[in-house]
Amino acid sequence: MIEGCKICGVSDPDTLSFIVNHPYSPKFIGFICNYQKSPRYVEFDKLENLLNIKKNNCQYVAVLVKPNEEILEKIKNLPFDYYQLYDCTPEQINSIKINYNKKIITAFTIKDKSDLEKYQDFNEVTDIYLFDSKGYEKSEAFDHDLIKDIKINKKLMIAGNIKYNDDLENYGKIADFIDLSGGLETSGLKDLSKIEIFLKKVKQIKNET
User: Fold this and answer.
1) Among residues 5, 34, 38, which one has the least CA distance to residue 19?
2) Average pLDDT, integer, range 25-41
3) 63-97 pLDDT per residue, tens
4) Residue among 209, 105, 207 at smallest CA distance from 157
5) CA distance 12 to 46
6) pTM for this one?
7) What is the DSSP letter of 67?
8) Per-residue pLDDT averaged across 134-155, rounded?
9) Shortest CA distance to 26 belongs to which of 153, 203, 146, 209?
10) Bridge-based pairing state of the strands 189-190 and 82-86
11) pLDDT value of position 136
């Protein structure tokens, strides 16, 4: 059952203000903190200013790919509620969780069933699992049917080339949260009209379940 959504890759104040003040605002908003290959990457000075915008009912998520100590120290005083971590071992995540006192979204990039084999190793350090595509910045797709039968006792978030106007109800059979980034963009920029449709659709699904 869909409990809510995440809008990821927000990088400008107009978009962020629109989202946090929306009557059906998402539960999570993600910011790309250290993956410079992404067109949605936000440099630290800009990020610091961006996060001065009051989050209201949303929770801010730092998206980090194998973060080093330098970036972790830089962002430690920013108002993040979660760290979304890619390419980290359970030991590394545990250390980050303890040292920085953050909730953790553990992200797995999925291409085939073999990529799911180790998710249980992260159970002790994970608050939410995210199953994403291999694309990172490219919003590639993966076969969401791969995760239909796995048993998880934590909340599950799903990403990977999901579009704002997809039949989002179908994702409710396999996930608690839907995560969109590129699917809310036009010509590489966040499109407020697509965000509007997406947030209303998620609200409608929640009302119907």
Assistant:
1) 5
2) 96
3) 999 999 999 999 999 999 999 999 999 999 999 99
4) 105
5) 9
6) 0.93
7) -
8) 72
9) 203
10) unpaired
11) 54
**Domain regions of the chain by residue span:** 4-208
- Tokens representing 107 are 């992200």
Mean model confidence pLDDT for the chain? 91
Q: How far apart are CA 169 and CA 193, in angstroms?
A: 20
CA distances from 74 to 44, 54, 70, 71, 77 (A): 8, 20, 6, 5, 8
The alpha-carbon radius of gyration of the chain (Å, integer) is 16
Helices (H), the chain: 13-20, 44-50, 69-75, 90-100, 192-208
Of 97-101, 109-113, 188-192, least confident by mean pLDDT is 109-113
Q: Which residue has the tokens 């250290």?
A: 34
Residues 6+ apart with CB under 8 A from 132: 107, 108, 109, 110, 142, 159, 160, 179
Confidence of residue 141 (pLDDT cuts 50, 70, 90): low
| Amino acid letter, 76 | K
Q: Which two tokens stand for residue 176?
A: 């608690």
Q: Which pair of structure tokens corresponds to residue 4?
A: 């809510």
Separation of alpha carbons 15 and 38, rounded Å: 18
Structure-block tokens of residue 86: 């890619």
pLDDT digits (tens, 9 = 90+) for 112-123: 777 777 888 999
Query: Top-level CATH class of 4-208?
Result: alpha beta
* DSSP assignments along 2-25, one per residue: --EEEE----SHHHHHHHHTSTT-
